[in-house]
Design a protein that fits this description.
The protein is an alpha+beta fold. The protein is built from seven helices and eight strands.
Length: 256
């Protein structure tokens, strides 16, 4: 009879954790690479609309400066060398292109309100925009949606780009914001986490709209939703969930 297999020690399973770097330069290079990869992913998934859409990442050394995608460039081919370094007033410090000033003003307001946030995602998805047109929060209808339970906000009035500070305040301490009639905004302690929250919120909105169209959705109860959020709602969980997207064939780790 064959000998019963024994569990493999956890330390040998090769499970990755968010990297920690010794210098600001190494951290900067990692954040820029992650930003460029994330933009390519958003482009591949169709989450851009003309010149709309922006992702920003705080510089690790100059914390009032941010790396962003350039105005008018398609997400799909961006590399770290294409990114712009912009100060809190939207002035380009490094780079050869313009920044989308209206979009960046919202990002700057969020970064000012939430100095611990590393990345902000604000781009276009059909289901998040549809939910925003209804002026609704994400309901705890699925395990995945529970990650946002009592951890996102609704700005229940149309807020254009002319009042970015109001958007920054409306986010509060949460990971996501539904901007009525506009769509979704997400944040994270890494660019990977912020991107995952955007993708997860977009999918949760899709399920919610489909369920409503089919009948009367049955939400998960408060206690279970809170417990599920505790398990799946951290930025670490988001970072882990994002990693398979990088490894997919033709994924974002290359520009091909």
């Amino acid at each position: 009879m064959a000998e019963r297999p024994v569990p493999v020690p956890v330390e040998r399973l090769g499970f990755a954790m968010p990297p920690v770097f010794a210098t600001a330069g190494e951290t900067r290079a990692h954040r820029k690479a992650g930003l460029a990869e994330g933009l390519r992913l958003l482009g591949r998934l169709g989450y851009e609309d003309g010149v709309a859409g922006q992702v920003s990442v705080r510089d690790p050394e100059f914390e009032d400066c941010y790396w962003v995608n350039p105005f008018g460039r398609a997400f799909g081919a961006l590399t770290p060398d294409d990114l712009l370094l912009v100060d809190g007033e939207g002035r380009v410090l490094r780079g050869e292109r313009r920044v989308n000033q209206l979009a960046f003003a919202v990002h700057a307001a969020v970064h000012r309100e939430r100095p611990q946030v590393v990345a902000v995602v604000r781009t276009q998805g059909p289901y998040g925009r549809a939910l925003a047109c209804l002026g609704e929060l994400l309901a705890p209808l699925t395990e995945e949606a529970c990650a946002f339970y009592e951890d996102h906000a609704l700005l229940d009035e149309y807020a254009g780009a002319e009042d970015p500070a109001r958007i920054g305040r409306a986010l509060g301490p949460y990971k996501a914001l539904v901007l009525r009639n506009r769509g979704l905004l997400t944040v994270g302690d890494s660019v990977e986490a912020a991107l995952w929250w955007f993708l997860a919120a977009e999918r949760a909105a899709q399920v919610q709209l489909i369920a409503r169209a089919a009948g009367k959705p049955v939400p998960i109860d408060h206690r279970s939703a809170v417990a599920t959020r505790a398990r799946f709602g951290s930025d670490l969980a988001a970072w882990v969930s994002y990693q398979p997207l990088r490894e997919a064939p033709g994924g974002v780790a290359s520009t091909s």
